[in-house]
Amino acid sequence: MLEVTLFSVLNGVLYGMLLFLLASGLTLIFSMMGVLNFAHASFYMLGAYLGFELSRHLNFWVALATVPLGVGLVGALIEQYGLRTVHRLGHVPELLFTFGLSFVIEEAVAMVWGRLPVDYRVPPLLDFTAFSLFTTNYPAFRLFMLVISMLLFMVLLLVLNRTRIGLVIRASLTHADMVSMLGHDVPRVFMLVFGAGCSLAALAGVIAGPIMVTSPSMAEQLGPLLFVIIVVGGLGSLQGAFLASLLVGLLQTFAVAMNFSLSDVLARLGIGVPTITAARELATATIAQVAPSVPYLLLVLVLLFRPAGLMGKRA
């Protein structure tokens, strides 16, 4: 039991930090522009595929250094020549634009790499066991992912809270007109933040691709979870996104590890399983089987008892 708990905590924190890399960019974009970017997870998928391609022809480290920059540049261009144009027309055209963009990226990826998963492998330099605990080996690449995610989180906090660039960005979130009057190019700040958010998503794709399934469906599998995180954390709250990412990562990881059902609990209490077919099926389903729905159950509970989110502010 102790072994399962320790490794569930490690894997939950790792998964949560990867989710935060994605949710942080989406949170900043929403805070500055009021846009829920439906294509955000598609940049994560694009990063994974480009990382796979560069790893195959060059090496993983070249992909790690160049893919986030390239995808960030693409995101900045999309904001400047696409999203900025429809921004004047209101929120519905923005949502439709990003929604359509997600399909364009998915179909482009499928045309180039096909619809089957690709063989994205762990780099040889990190393909070993970092440590052994009880009877389980913990891969070095997972530890590398955890360290990179934590370092980027700290760098992001330092940039936003301790630098002039971060001051301008945070001021643009709430007082864009005043920042513009002080001589700063607010549209360029928006473009850079949008590009940086896409870059973070691509970085998550590069480092997560070798241990997660890299396929054209990876964006649609992860996309809804990102919106759960930013709503649970509080719309526009970076600290809330961090807390919600860790919470979702830990809850989902522990749920997958729990192989018991409601009927097992009822049996220990001396209560019989319901005879109604639907109730019986629900009672005999293990927690691991319903683990994918746990984040959405958390979303429902947060909206019921704290509609503004864990660290959001009431309007």
Describe this structure in words.
The protein has 315 residues and is mainly alpha-helical. It has a single domain (2-259), classed as ABC transporter involved in vitamin B12 uptake, BtuC. 72% of the residues lie in helices and 3% in strands. The chain has 13 helices and 2 strands, in the order H-H-H-H-E-E-H-H-H-H-H-H-H-H-H. The chain has helices at 2-33, 40-57, 60-87, 91-113, 140-162, 164-174, 176-181, 186-208, 218-233, 238-257, 262-268, 277-284, 294-305; strands at 129-133, 136-139. A two-stranded antiparallel sheet has the order 1-2. Helix 1 (2-33) crosses helix 6 (164-174), helix 2 packs antiparallel against helix 3 and helix 9 runs parallel beside helix 13. The longest helix is centred in the N-terminal third of the chain and has 32 residues, at 2-33. The protein is globular. The N and C termini lie far apart (44 Å).
